[in-house]
Amino acid sequence: MMARMHSGEMLRRLVGFDTVSRNSNLAAIEFIRDYLDGHGIASRLSFDDSGAKANLFATIGPADAPGIILSGHSDVVPVDQQEWTSDPFTLRSQNGKLYGRGAADMKGFIATALALAPELKQRATAAPIHFAFSYDEEVGCIGVSRLIDQIGMAEARPFACVVGEPTMMRPITGQKGLQSYRCKVHGREAHSSRTSYGVNAVEAAAELIARINAIARRVREEGPFDRDFDPPYTTIHCGTIHGGTVQNIVPAQCDFTYEIRNLPGHDPDPLLAEIETHAREVLEPEMKNVAPEAGFDFNARSRLPGYAIAEDDPAVALVKRVLGANETGRASYMTEAGLFGRAGIPTVICGPGDIAQAHKPDEFIEEAQLARCETFLLRLTETLAA
C-alpha cells in the first residue's frame, strides 16, 4: 500500500504539475489515480474529445448508499507576464504560507482530500465520500458536465456536494451566473483620407461597448440588488478588444469580449437581447448603407447558471454543523456549484484559502487553512458514519 502523504506534501506534488488550462492535465490525473489505487480506491476517468484532458471520479465507502461529493478542478490559470518571486510550479514554504500556482485555487482542497484518503476509507462505513476532480473549470466549467454525467451513473445518487473553492472555510450558499460572449465586428477597409467609403469596425465596436457600459451603469443604479453579494448587483464588463492594422487604413475587423455576472434569479437574457438589438437596429443600418457585408456576429463563450441554495437545506445544515458555523455567505465569482445544482445535487461552496489570492502572482495558502480543512473533512466523514 502506498504511504500516506500529509497535505503539504500532497500539495507540493500537485503544484508541480503544470495544469494551466491550455495544457493537458493527464499527468496530474494519472498521479491521483495511481495514488488512490495504491490505497485500494478505484477511480474512473472521463476524457475530453481530444483525449488530452480527463476528469476523475472515485468513491470511498459503500457505493450503494447516498453520499457526499468533494469537488475540485485540476486546472489553473496562466502565470504569463506575472512577476513571481519564485518558480510558480515549485511549492515554496515561508512563514506558515505555501506559495505556488493553484495553492489556493484550488489544489489546496484537492491535496487535503487526497492526503486524508486512507483515513476517509476507514471512516466512510455508512455513507460514501466521492472525489470529483474536473478539467477546464477556469475556461468555462467545461469538464464538469461530463463528470456530472458520470456521477449520474453511480449506484446511489449523492445527496450533497461540497465544492472546495477557497472561502476561508466559510460556507457559501450562492453564486452569480456567468454569461460570456465574443462579438466580431465586420466593416470595410478604405484609405483613412476617404473614411466615407469605408466602415470603421473599431468605431462600431466602440459604440456598442459604450452602450454596454450604459446598461451596466443602469443595472448598478437600479438593481435588482442582493446585499449578500459584493457587489450586490449584476455586473457587466468588457474585457478585451482587438482591431485595426495601421493608422491610415479604416479597419475592417474588430472583436471584443464581454460578460454578464448575474445575480441568482436575475435573468440575463433581456440584457443580452438589449445589447444585440442595439447592434442590429441602431448601428448596423448605417454600416450596411455603405457596405452590405458589414455587421456584428455574437458568439456565446459560456452560459453558466447562477446558484442559490436555501439556508435551511439539509446540505447547508450539515456543513454548518460540522464547521460549527452560524453564518453563511454568497460569492460573486464563478464555481461549478451552479452545474451541480442544476443537476439536482444540493451544493455548498466551502474550501481552504482566500479567493483574494486566486489568479495572482505569488499565490499562497496558509498552512492553518489546510489544517482547518482536514478537521472539517474528518468531522464530515464521522458525521455521515453516525
Give a topology summary:
Blueprint: H1 7-15, H2 26-38, E1 43-47, E2 54-60, E3 68-73, E4 92-94, E5 97-99, H3 103-115, H4 117-123, E6 129-134, H5 144-151, E7 160-163, E8 172-175, E9 178-186, E10 190-191, H6 201-222, E11 235-243, E12 249-250, E13 253-261, H7 269-290, E14 295-304, E15 307-308, H8 314-323, E16 329-331, H9 337-342, E17 347-349, E18 364-366, H10 367-385
Helix pairs in contact: 1-3, 3-10, 6-7, 8-10
Q: What are the key terms here?
A:
386 residues; alpha+beta; Alpha-Beta Plaits; four-stranded antiparallel sheet; 10 helices; 18 strands
Give your account of this protein's structure.
The structure is a single chain. The chain has ten helices and 18 strands. With 386 residues, the protein is of the alpha+beta class. The chain folds into two domains: 7-175 and 305-385, Aminopeptidase; 178-304, Alpha-Beta Plaits, CATH 3.30.70. Strands 1-2-6-3-7-17 form a six-stranded mixed sheet. A four-stranded antiparallel sheet has the order 11-13-9-14, with helices on one face. A three-stranded antiparallel sheet has the order 4-5-18. A hairpin with a 6-residue loop joins strand 1 and strand 2. Helix 1 crosses helix 3, helix 6 packs antiparallel against helix 7 and helix 8 packs across helix 10 (367-385). The longest helix is centred in the middle third of the chain and has 22 residues, at 201-222. The chain is elongated and about 75 Å long. The model has no long low-confidence stretch (mean pLDDT 95).
